[in-house]
Design a protein that fits this description.
Length: 329
């Protein structure tokens, strides 16, 4: 009797995580730029006795560490993409990096808020010329970093749903572009440098106003405003990354297309459907079908439009008793 090897029936579960993403290269470039600025500012601060330069250099060091965490997530996910211990690949390492970034952003915003309140209560003297120069340098560096990382696509849940609905309509041709929209790790790095750029911009506005109009209270006020904005970004990033880690149900519009495709077969009805993200721009689905005269599993799978771009589909079929119609909604 002819025996077929099971190897031919198996498929990979890396879901594209083994390739190097554009976000990884961009993050490396930003880390180098931030680290160089950190070294220059710390060295200049020590050489010229400038506390403003030294403080900003240490601040840059904290962001270099945060970006290094994002880089580690990219490298770990890529190097372990084919590790069989990960049932659905290492795509969620990306979301884990994003979640870590969200927590660091929250800590950053809390520190900004606390320090700003302290300065309201106990104002400190400001070396305006030095402080403005440091803020301008920070704005230039972080502005360049924002440009390098680029805008990571739609950042709210609705935006992700709209992107995936677009794929379902037949626009999922450029995987790297669409991964960019769901790359929580890249979004974390982007929000870190954007938060820094915003802080520098608000600081410049406050310092210039205080320097020429004497409104010293503008400095802590801008700090509080920046803390509120950064905390909102942190919450949005946390929600998106946590949704992936907790297997939040995918877009309903896509689930509806799957149901519609499967239920075209006779009296087949979808009794249960799970749709979840297994990585940036990668979704998996488990479909349970009930029918009195069911089609084959392969037929059900083939009926699901390929442009939806599901990375992994499992179909389980339940047959009704003879003569009993499949249940309706």
């Amino acid at each position: 009797m002819h025996t077929t090897s099971l190897h031919s029936w198996r498929h990979a579960h890396d879901f594209g995580q083994g390739r190097k993403r554009s976000g990884e290269s961009r993050t490396i470039a930003v880390i180098i730029l931030t680290a160089l600025t950190m070294v220059i500012e710390v060295a200049a601060g020590l050489l010229f006795g400038s506390l403003a330069l030294l403080a900003d250099g240490l601040h840059m060091a904290s962001h270099t560490v945060a970006l290094a965490i994002n880089l580690f997530a990219y490298i770990y996910a890529r190097r372990h993409a084919h590790d069989p211990r990960y049932s659905f690949g290492t795509g969620k390492v990306n979301a884990l990096g994003g979640l870590t970034g969200a927590v660091l952003l929250a800590v950053f915003s809390l520190m900004m808020g606390v320090e700003s309140v302290k300065r309201f209560i106990h104002p400190v003297s400001i070396a305006f010329d030095q402080a403005i120069a440091v803020a301008v340098l920070g704005l230039l560096v972080n502005g360049a970093s924002v440009f390098i990382l680029g805008r990571p696509g739609e950042r709210d849940r609705g935006g992700a749903d709209r992107r995936f609905e677009g794929a379902a309509a037949g626009h999922a041709r450029d995987h790297d572009h669409h991964d960019h929209h769901h790359d929580h790790n890249l979004r974390s790095a982007y929000l870190h440098v954007l938060a820094d750029a915003l802080t520098s911009l608000l600081a410049i506005a406050a310092l210039v106003t205080a320097r020429y109009l004497g409104t010293v209270w503008m400095d802590p006020l801008m700090g509080i405003l920046g803390a509120v904005l950064v905390s909102r970004w942190s919450v949005g990033l946390f929600s998106g990354a946590a949704g992936v880690l907790l297997d939040r149900q995918g877009p309903e519009a896509v689930a509806a297309r799957i149901r519609e495709a499967v239920q075209r077969h006779g009296d087949s009805r979808v009794s249960d459907l799970h749709l979840w993200a297994v990585g940036p721009g990668r979704y998996a689905a488990i479909v349970a079908v009930v029918a009195s005269d069911p089609a084959s599993v392969d037929e059900y799978k083939r009926s699901i439009p390929s442009e939806i771009g599901l990375a992994h589909v499992t179909v389980e079929v339940h047959c009704c008793r003879a003569g009993e119609p499949a249940p309706r909604e």
